[in-house]
Amino acid sequence: MARLVPRKISSKDLHSIPKMIDISGKPVIKREAVAEGTIYLRKSTMELIESGKIEKGDPFQIATFSAIQAIKNTPSSLVMCHPIPIEGSSVEFDKTSDSITVRVKVVASSKTGVEMDALNAVSVALLNIWDVVKKYEKNDQGQYPDTRIADIHVVRKFKEAKSEEGK
Amino acid sequence: MARLVPRKISSKDLHSIPKMIDISGKPVIKREAVAEGTIYLRKSTMELIESGKIEKGDPFQIATFSAIQAIKNTPSSLVMCHPIPIEGSSVEFDKTSDSITVRVKVVASSKTGVEMDALNAVSVALLNIWDVVKKYEKNDQGQYPDTRIADIHVVRKFKEAKSEEGK
Amino acid sequence: MARLVPRKISSKDLHSIPKMIDISGKPVIKREAVAEGTIYLRKSTMELIESGKIEKGDPFQIATFSAIQAIKNTPSSLVMCHPIPIEGSSVEFDKTSDSITVRVKVVASSKTGVEMDALNAVSVALLNIWDVVKKYEKNDQGQYPDTRIADIHVVRKFKEAKSEEGK
Amino acid sequence: MARLVPRKISSKDLHSIPKMIDISGKPVIKREAVAEGTIYLRKSTMELIESGKIEKGDPFQIATFSAIQAIKNTPSSLVMCHPIPIEGSSVEFDKTSDSITVRVKVVASSKTGVEMDALNAVSVALLNIWDVVKKYEKNDQGQYPDTRIADIHVVRKFKEAKSEEGK
Amino acid sequence: MARLVPRKISSKDLHSIPKMIDISGKPVIKREAVAEGTIYLRKSTMELIESGKIEKGDPFQIATFSAIQAIKNTPSSLVMCHPIPIEGSSVEFDKTSDSITVRVKVVASSKTGVEMDALNAVSVALLNIWDVVKKYEKNDQGQYPDTRIADIHVVRKFKEAKSEEGK
Amino acid sequence: MARLVPRKISSKDLHSIPKMIDISGKPVIKREAVAEGTIYLRKSTMELIESGKIEKGDPFQIATFSAIQAIKNTPSSLVMCHPIPIEGSSVEFDKTSDSITVRVKVVASSKTGVEMDALNAVSVALLNIWDVVKKYEKNDQGQYPDTRIADIHVVRKFKEAKSEEGK
Q: Cα–chain-centroid distance for residue A124?
């Protein structure tokens, strides 16, 4: 089972080997992040949503449910993300005649920020909305000429001032 | 990519949008919860279990294994549950001539209680028992006239006295 | 790396080593299963649910989402269950003044039945209902004297007649 | 354990109870879907990527892995999606001086389309790119004034002609 | 939201972009694979196992459960693996005075082989054995001078002769 | 729903019921573990790897990606492992003309060690390497006469001196 004097792989051999950044020296402080994004739908689909006629279920409920599940699933979807003990989250919606905007707030006491968790939740919520209305967005060829997810961004990040004893 | 002045969705528009409660202000204290539940089986199945003749494996072992896995999987099954760093758990069984009772204890140092985690473990353990004996519980029509899971409840919750600085 | 003549572990040495039953020789046929179960809650909690005042969200919506997710998660919770490509499911509710009954139907074309998937969905749905109303079910000591999950059972299983050649 | 004559919940009581559509009667045919989306980054970040200087790892590699994992994870992120036995996928990239476009193709033999799986993969890939370059996108206040995910859409869906006996 | 004529990333720019091989054209045939591997432990630990004195539980039971769960989890651990509907599996053990060998058989009707699933199960089973006996394998400095996992390999693969046209 | 005076299952009845050890009384201190393992491949496969010709993707990238994901997935694969908030990890490789050695370092501030997490990551990384090169390792009968995973072990564990108030 002996391994003969192995040659260490040099930086010339490998291109940017990924790693998960070491955050062990950072203090645990309160973090908050708000992210949002928008899905553009047909006006006719928005009207069906308004009148509660989507066969697969209410898009706002499904988006909220899936957003909260997605927050907890972030370290599994985002390879380099640290697992963070999420302590709260809420979901809000804006709508126009042809779009729904999802806004997710995430709160945690942790060594690193929670904006990726909020972004992941927004993204999963928008995809769930698409999924439950897809039947109404397809054209005759089964294509989606109008449906678009857009403008996923971080609205704001916030962290408590570091307490003095924190490193 | 501009979003035109969106109308904020009011409480009149949406029915109880779910949220994950914010526990960030609560202190980390030691928590403990014990839950239990019972599965009713045929006497003949219980005798097969007693004599170690269940083809799929020993129900007590499988129940214990799956209970401990389920505790760690609680935030994924229960939408509004916070992820909690579980620090210990144990599983016990009672039996009668036609039932098995599963009792699960969960321990953690956390900002919220662990009773849902214990209940989830009990529930998954009972389902695993059902699964490994299902062949012996079916009647001629492939139905389960006798098998029932019942009385899943919290035996007790406990938390350490809050330290003075905690809220 | 040589392994010296190992002694085969005999049935005398090991107690019912579990296994996943081989279903490869069975035909793919249409399967259906309906399971249900009940959670008993306080009348006061049921009134809050009726009036849409549960802070964490609507229990029926959350129960439905989590039931459907649970169906897909069954092979992960139930150790000896085969992965089954679920093709449809629906969730229904009954209620009395102090209880909610969840009924889940699961449909699949598969080599084995889907009753465990339906039972798992019922069980997870009931736990999610508990979780979103737990604040209203606790007494002064933080205990749950009234809350119970009961009577989880298979309402019926059904499978298509096997086609002659049983592919 | 008796349940007294329960009142069936009517459509007046519940708002669009969600369900997973029954696809059991549809034929298994070959499906393909291509989706894409774009992340807008700072020119300086794009230059770092070009010169292989991203500390957390190569964004194209990480985006590709996470896209392929995400395809397989779609039924878990998208509540109403059916589990589909994915049979192949590939990932391509376009870039400009301030953006990366991810394009994912998914292939499967299944009873329903795979566009949601492709969209989910694109979305997760874009979030992973954001995550590995986030250090270079933050301003002095730790905010992300420039980073945006945009234009996630289905490029095309395709399915084999239905065989005559299929529905 | 327009994307300006993007430059296609060439093979000069990117190093072996990974992909999941397209197996959609292959026939569904019966597959079987057997893999095994060995963990070397202290003689004193093996004696504790023999006498049923391992505090965390019986290593053979835990290894078996975790092996069967691992088979189903293979597409999540192995990035380029296709999801395969596993139809059966069994686990066997050999032992010597200082080692345990785990052998896992996996059966499926699928378009690609199941040897990676069997290897993954063996590997996870061996790690679970290590985990439950780790207390007895550590020396005074908390190190593991003796514990080794070795010789993980495929014992044999098997597939049914392809039917003539490869359906 | 009454449970008749149940008989407590005694240690005579059950063989080492597994449990997750209670670590709630242990202090949170910084932990580090390094594990490694080796996969033996054909010289011809190693040459293909060197020249970047592996169709499924670069083995070093895939191994690194999957190792980091595996660390976060350890409590799910290893039944009795506690969930640990991982704070950093890195992956290194050695190679000879017929082998690749994977070395994984894991860092966390926790109540228990992280060596199982590092071992799990090494093991999953090696399996991913096997998976992406399996086409080049098979002989004419589709068997793997040369491929072996070997010598998975803990290189070193380390923990900070316990602070005075810790136990």
A: 6
